[in-house]
Write a structure and sequence with these properties.
The complex is a heterodimer of chains A (339) and B (356).
Chain A: H1 3-8, E1 12-16, H2 23-36, E2 40-46, H3 54-63, E3 75-79, E4 85-91, H4 93-103, H5 107-115, H6 118-125, H7 129-146, E5 155-159, H8 163-179, H9 183-197, E6 202-208, H10 212-229, E7 232-241, H11 253-262, H12 269-299, E8 304-308, H13 317-332
Parallel strand pairs in A: 1-5, 1-6, 2-4, 2-5, 6-7, 7-8
Antiparallel strand pairs in A: 3-4
Helix pairs in contact in A: 2-3, 2-13, 4-5, 4-7, 7-8, 7-9, 8-9, 8-10, 10-12
Chain B: E1 11-16, H1 23-36, E2 40-45, H2 50-56, E3 66-67, E4 79-84, H3 87-98, H4 102-110, H5 112-120, H6 124-139, E5 144-148, H7 152-170, H8 172-183, H9 190-203, H10 205-217, H11 222-236, E6 241-247, H12 251-266, E7 271-279, H13 288-294, H14 300-326, E8 331-336, H15 345-354
Parallel strand pairs in B: 1-5, 1-6, 2-4, 2-5, 6-7, 7-8
Antiparallel strand pairs in B: 3-4
The chains are: A alpha/beta (339), B alpha/beta (356).
Chain lengths: 339, 356
């Protein structure tokens, strides 16, 4: 397929998966691949209603060697001479509401409405409304990109809520379009539904780890998104897979001891025990992961993009480059071949 | 917790932590641990993975405690019960309980705004989990109730849940919405009318009408709800309730966990136990001369593996140290990386062994 084809198949890539599988990391890696290809990427994180959620907000910045937590204003995380750049920002339902009111000529009331808790009221009456406002903001950015506005991003990467919430998040515009009786919100919802249904504008990138529960839930999420939202699923990222080592078939200490002697060295009992115990853990984990990757391939006919587990201390710029190499190889290689 | 002393109420254990760290499994294992110690234990799960739900026999039925039978050959001295929370029907039951009559309940249950609140409003699930917890506690049928909570971002909603409805009822806009029945729409102050008009402009007039409808229908039930929410909150903050922080030894989950610890202390809650799932064991390292000699031989992959897993283990230790320094008084329990998910009581018992 090639990186550029992968990155330009849709203007909005919605990255979602079960909690803890690495959605934010994958969002950052996709954006970094975009920079390498001279594109301008904007990562959009959805903030929890009301509060700034610090740990998550700083995670993406750290990947780019920065410390500052994301805020409503976009920050530049990286840029290169080929014109590629990564910017990132966070969106919150209440700020999206204020912006929405401003754009619709209700500037005077907006602050008061939000501070009085009217958003709670509206969200209570139309629960999908905050989601519609958030996706509406993303849609506005997408339209700017489509119109080729000078400061618009080429690719918007939406770091979406965790799987269960993501399905509800993406279903909301459909619900609101059906339920809200007229008014600008209904129109907004309909426009968002249009974006979600158009594969040239918006696609979903699923993320999982090669573990049992994440794989099961990814398959469920994929089916739900296909049947109830209709957004095209472009691929599934299999994150944090242990690199497959060619371990000896037998881990019998006596055999290993002999092999060491043949190599001109000697292993103590404790060293042998370490090698054997670690080898057992690794081979179990490798087998279990291979089985889950195979199950995912048989239950979900999507290209699999594999990213390796990082053994380093924590994810920073070095790991970002390493993971981006892996993503580049995965989208370039025969991605359709599922093992 | 001896039966000789008068029973002041069930012990409650609330499991909190980031998403994807095995919180539900830990909650179930803690309940099993209690049951094995002779207690009548019940686990309240919120969104269990299918195989865990099957293992507990709660795949189909919901919302009422279900007795989990020990497989033949193994003995559980106490009792193990499980319930999968159904937020909507819990809320429906609550409405029926506090309605002034069957008519009021029927009207409210049919109101679209009520249906939104009970099915989809963020915070409702947390509120109903606390409600369920309170209901089970009050029933006197259990000595130990273990509650699973939604992932980190929402765990605080859980602690704040009893206040949630009260806060909605106290919301100034809601109070204004309820005014019309009392004083007539004309008496509504100008500012409130403006606000209603704006909401109508944004979300449609029907939304405002339904909301006013809901709050007028809700009149008379408020006090019951409020009092119950207060009692539920008392349970959460009582001495019988303890908190277990569940996490994995990764930088991002530990960040989330520590964030939670800070937020919880603001709500007057502190975790007394930390369960760290998915721990890798530590191994003795090879002398570098030995490792060099083995490079290129068929033992080389084993040497590489040992180095890689040791790197993971040392990263893990530094993350565990962060938790230990944030919660110096807490007991830290490690559960190793399990090669298979919990799919039956036998494998749940293995997890429970690590929590002993």
């Amino acid at each position: 397929m090639g990186p550029l084809t992968f990155l330009t198949q849709a203007r909005v890539l919605i990255v979602t998966g079960k909690g803890g599988v690495g959605k934010t990391t994958v969002s950052g890696v996709v954006a970094n691949l975009a920079v390498r290809n001279g594109l301008r990427a904007m990562v959009v994180q959805i903030g929890a209603p009301g509060a700034r959620h610090e740990p998550e907000a700083a995670q993406l910045s750290r990947l780019y060697g920065q410390e500052e937590a994301l805020g409503y204003e976009a920050v530049l995380l990286d840029a290169n001479e080929e014109g590629g750049e990564v910017a990132a920002r966070a969106l919150w339902p209440d700020t999206a509401l204020v912006e929405y009111l401003h754009r619709h000529g209700m500037r005077r009331l907006s602050r008061r409405l939000v501070s009085s808790g009217a958003l709670d009221v509206v969200a209570t009456a139309v629960p999908g409304m905050p989601d519609v406002l958030l996706l509406g903001k993303v849609k506005q950015m997408e339209r700017a990109a489509a119109a080729g506005q000078p400061d618009a991003a080429d690719l918007i990467v939406l770091d979406a809520p965790a799987a269960g919430h993501a399905v509800r998040f993406l279903q909301s515009p459909h619900g609101v379009a059906d339920a809200a009786g007229g008014g600008p919100v209904r129109q907004q919802a309909e426009e968002v539904v249009e974006m979600l249904s158009d594969p040239s504008r918006c696609q979903v990138l699923l993320v999982t780890t090669p573990e049992e529960t994440p794989v099961s839930e990814t398959v469920e999420t994929a089916n739900l998104i296909e049947s109830t939202v209709g957004t095209k699923l472009c691929a599934v990222v299999v994150n944090a897979r242990l690199p497959v080592l060619d371990l000896p078939a037998s881990l019998r200490p006596a055999e290993l001891a002999r092999a060491a002697v043949a190599a001109g060295t000697k292993l103590s009992a404790a060293e042998l025990e370490s090698l054997v115990a670690a080898g057992r853990v690794r081979s179990q984990r490798q087998e279990a992961q291979a089985a889950q990757v195979a199950r995912l391939a048989s239950e979900l006919p999507l290209p699999q993009l594999e990213l390796p587990f990082c053994f380093g201390s924590e994810l920073g710029p070095d790991e970002l480059e390493l993971l981006t190499d892996a993503l580049e190889a995965a989208v370039t290689g025969p991605a359709e071949v599922a093992r | 917790m001896t039966s000789a002393a008068p029973r002041p109420g069930a012990h409650v254990v609330v499991c909190v932590g980031p998403g994807g760290v095995g919180k539900t499994t830990t909650a179930a294992a803690l309940a099993l641990r209690g049951a094995r110690a002779g207690l009548r234990a019940c686990v309240v799960t919120i969104d269990p993975a299918r195989r865990l739900a099957d293992a507990l026999g709660i795949g189909e039925v919901g919302n009422e405690p279900h007795r989990v039978e020990a497989p033949s050959g193994s003995e559980i001295p106490g009792e193990l019960w499980a319930v999968m929370l159904d937020a909507q029907s819990t809320f429906d039951d609550l409405v029926s309980r506090y309605a002034t009559g069957p008519d009021q309940a029927t009207t409210i249950l049919a109101n679209p705004v009520y249906q939104n609140i009970s099915a989809a409003l963020s915070g409702t699930q947390e509120y109903m989990a606390v409600e369920k917890l309170y209901e089970l506690q009050e029933s006197g049928a259990f000595d130990l109730i273990v509650v699973d909570t939604p992932p980190a971002q929402h765990a605080l909603d859980f602690l704040e849940a009893p206040k949630h409805l009260a806060r909605l009822l106290d919301n100034r806009v809601f109070r204004l919405l309820m005014t019309p029945t009392r004083a007539g729409l004309r008496a509504l102050e100008l500012g409130a009318q403006l606000m209603l008009r704006t909401i109508a402009k944004v979300a449609g007039g029907q939304v405002v009408a339904d909301t006013i409808g809901f709050f007028t229908q809700f009149e008379g039930m408020e006090e019951g709800f409020r009092a119950r929410a207060r009692r539920a909150e008392e349970v959460l903050h009582s001495e019988l309730t303890s908190f277990v922080l569940v996490c994995s030894p990764r930088r991002d989950t530990v960040d989330e966990a520590l964030y939670l610890v800070t937020q919880m202390s603001g709500s007057g809650a502190e975790a007394t136990t930390v369960v760290v799932n998915r721990c890798y064991p530590s191994y003795a390292a090879l002398p570098s001369a030995t490792a060099d000699a083995l490079a290129g031989t068929r033992l080389s992959p084993l040497v590489v593996n040992l180095e890689q897993l040791s790197a993971v283990a040392s990263m893990q230790e530094s993350q565990l140290a962060r938790i230990a320094s944030a919660l110096p008084k807490a007991t830290l329990l490690r559960v190793p990386f399990l090669s298979r998910d919990v799919a039956d009581l036998g494998s749940l018992a293995e997890v429970a062994d690590f929590l002993a």
